[in-house]
Amino acid sequence: MARRLGYELAKIVVFGPQTGNPVAQLLDTIERVGADAVVMPTLHHLADELDAVVRVCDVITVHPENTYARWALPSNRWPAPATDDIAARGLTDGRRPERSHHDGFGRPE
């Protein structure tokens, strides 16, 4: 599926039932390899932590085939991070940086 969607497979990660805090370990792996997306069989593998992963990369599920893209989420989806591991990754409070308005040709409006 990764190849079909135009991604280069960088790593296969498998966590078992004995893995402590698999989502935190997944986030560390995403950061380490610089992943743009994670492909997984189902959302069941993320429990209720889809938002935490979509904050740093796209999530693609095989069954049902779906993409949860970073750009598709509203900027106010999450509360401002505190001193948790997400904040340590350098993420902001969820607001997009202010941009100057351009007309599509690089000229200010």
Summarize the structure in words.
- By secondary structure, this protein is of the alpha+beta class.
- Helices cover 19% and strands 10% of the residues.
- It contains 3 helices and 3 strands.
- It has a 3-stranded mixed β-sheet.
- A hairpin with a 4-residue loop joins strand 2 (58-61) and strand 3.
- The radius of gyration is 16 Å and the shape is globular.
- The N and C termini lie far apart (41 Å).
- Residues 83-109 have low confidence and may be disordered.
Blueprint (SSEs and pairs):
Elements: H1 22-33, E1 37-40, H2 50-54, E2 58-61, E3 66-68, H3 85-88
Parallel strand pairs: 1-2
Antiparallel strand pairs: 2-3
Defining key terms:
single chain, 19% helix, alpha+beta, 109 residues, globular, disordered C terminus, three-stranded mixed beta sheet, 3 strands
Describe what is shown at a glance:
The chain is of the alpha+beta class and 109 residues long.
Please provide the count of β strands.
3
Instruction: Estimate the helix proportion, in percent.
Output: 10-25%
Uncertain stretches of 5 or more adjacent residues:
83-109
Largest sheet, spatial ordering of strands: 1-2-3
Mean pLDDT: 76
Rounded Rg? 16 Å
Helical/strand content category: alpha+beta
Distance between the termini: 41 Å
Task: Categorize the overall geometry.
Answer: globular
Number of helices: 3
Major sheet characteristics: 3 strands, mixed
Order of helices and strands: HEHEEH
Strand content: 5-15%
